[in-house]
Fold this sequence. Notes:
conserved putative lor/sdh protein from methanococcus maripaludis s2 fold; Elongation Factor Tu (Ef-tu), domain 3; 6-stranded antiparallel barrel; 4-stranded antiparallel beta sheet
Amino acid sequence: MKKISLNLLCSLFLIHFSACSKEEAKKQPPPPPKVTVYQTEAREVPIYQEFVGQIYGFKDIAISARVEGYLEGIHFEEGSRVKKGALLYTLESQQFEADVAAKMSGVAGAETLRTEAETYMNRIKPLAKEKAVSQSDLDSAVAQYEVGVSSVKAAKANLRAAKIQLGYTKIYSPISGIIGKTKAKVGDFVGRQPSPIILNTVSRIDTVLVQFFITESQYLMFMRRHMADIDAGKVDETEKAGLELILSDGSVYAHEGKADFVNREVDPTTGALLIQASFPNPNELLRPGQFARVRGEIEVVKDGILIPQRCVMELQGTFTVYVVGAENKIQAKEVKAGPKIKSFWLIREGLKADEKVVYEGLQKVKDGTVVDTEVKNIPLSGKEKK
């Protein structure tokens, strides 16, 4: 009996101890949730704007026939590089050769008449001195000679014009560059006015031009900032801001460009201003007709605050972040967001430097929650440093 009582007593003691332990566990609060935070810092933040532009050659020269005729020959390989002065096309020349021959005959006839008039004038001059002929006869002879000289000049001018027309039957490259595909075939009649066929285009592309449009307000903002920098002595008046070119595959072109032309007027129908920038193209990667985005700096924010985009909660145009305040308590703050920069968001108002913004674990917290924090350093590239 004593043995049974002792076992029963031990069992009751264990049951009582277990119940007390459970009661004590219920009384202890759960540990605070662990969240990852991003610590803000003030920095100089450049703001960039992108504009859609189209690429042109540094020189794009259209090749067309200056005289009418049938295309007889193409003397280059399409899409290849041609040198200045290289023969590109030949047109039928028979009618122009015949015209040159006729004009040469006219020169010969005019020179014959001039020679006859000169001979007659030289014969009559001594007779006029001896009063053997009248002065009027001498004047008539001199006038005939002068007419003959003028006729020769006119005939030679007509011959030069005919030779120029004949020369137009051979078309040469005006510049060195890359030539495209011919828009006519051998045997086509080309050069008919008023809409002559553009046979081809030769482009110089060691440097390319990119044309894009900016709004009037963007132009005013940029120019005011630029003039302020000039007045402050930060930049020279001839200095131009570097521009980046983003290609259609999303890659950034290796060479920076500069704006070298601003149109004289704002288009009143669109409110846009044409800007032209030049980019070096040593490897000829860029070709005329491509579309690309031009990215340029339009503003620099002093003491700007950047936070990762995933820290920001947006609801009906209102932006909110969770900030870890005193005693590790969560505080919801409404902020004014600016432009996005890579994977970050520029905060115009609502945050200051050295604040801890919740980065991971947003679903675990609310206003007033006490948390356990871990700071993560996230570079502007958006990739976490481990």
